[in-house]
């Protein structure tokens, strides 16, 4: 086919594509605002047109058409490629939808691992707390003398209006500290699941014993009331996030030791992907817990009834969110529930 016949046959569709790139591809917001007025090439036709253009470019080169034609098609192809394969911007709406609905669905889909993690965390915590009430000297076996003195000073009931649970740092410093500490514990709990799940088991039990030990000691020496006022606000998101990260870690370990019908490497990738999705929600919970801990929990002048009321409300909200969130919605992570 002669070049002029080739150009005449395809000129109209090239112009259509050029017009679409000029009017629709430069700004997504502008394209959305004028979508009802647009009468040119439909958006869903662009991939097909781009493939046709690539074929026409290859044909033009093979037939030895002039540089005017091949350069025009090359530039048009590159412009279309940059639009079709550009990195998608972050969709905040989709992120919020995942946190409100997709994350709770994913947690519920792994309820067996979550239940096991909850038992591994709460049973040691409650057991050591009760044991120290019966035999207070057990606290000395968990912590050195300096640590016990520091705990008692932080929650001294003789200082009712001082900041609870801290020394001289301001709220912003403590917010950054709490984020680092909380996220570190969450990541450690999840990632240690790579050791066939045993690492996660150890981290959950260890944290349960340590938290139960601190609570038990302060309760036994008469400093319990300031301590409970301090932890009431942030305990729901923080402790729940630790348990969920533990459940994700156990799921990761199970993917390694019990791959089922999958190859072990495929099972590990699958489990890691699910765990990573869960960790996104865990991260959000831990940042929220750090915010509450830094700017609310440490206020010593707030009456106990308000502190406990806020804490109870957060426990209820976290529970409703995880139990009811996303029950009536359809999300892409449904495939992961299988």
Task: Give me a quick take on this structure.
The protein has 338 residues and is an all-alpha fold. It has 14 helices and no strands.
| Regions with little confidence, pLDDT below 50 for 5+ residues | 332-338
What global shape is seen? elongated
Calculate Rg over CA atoms.
Answer: 29 Å
Quaternary structure type: single chain
Beta strands, count: 0
> Could you tell me how far the N terminus lies from the C terminus, measured between alpha carbons in angstroms?
54 Å
Q: How much strand content do the residues show?
A: under 5%
Tell me the series of helices and strands, N- to C-terminal.
HHHHHHHHHHHHHH
Mean pLDDT over the full residue set? 86
**Structural class, from secondary structure content?**
mainly alpha
Can you walk me through this structure?
- This protein is an all-alpha fold and 338 residues long.
- It is 74% helix and 0% strand.
- Helix 12 runs antiparallel to helix 13 (264-297) and helix 12 (235-257) packs parallel to helix 14.
- The protein is elongated and about 100 Å long.
- The two termini are 54 Å apart.
- Mean pLDDT is 86; it is low at 332-338.
Write the layout of secondary structure elements.
Blueprint: H1 3-23, H2 28-33, H3 46-62, H4 67-84, H5 92-109, H6 111-134, H7 138-142, H8 145-154, H9 171-191, H10 198-220, H11 224-232, H12 235-257, H13 264-297, H14 304-324
Helix pairs in contact: 1-3, 1-4, 3-4, 5-13, 5-14, 6-10, 6-12, 9-10, 9-12, 9-13, 10-11, 10-12, 11-14, 12-13, 12-14
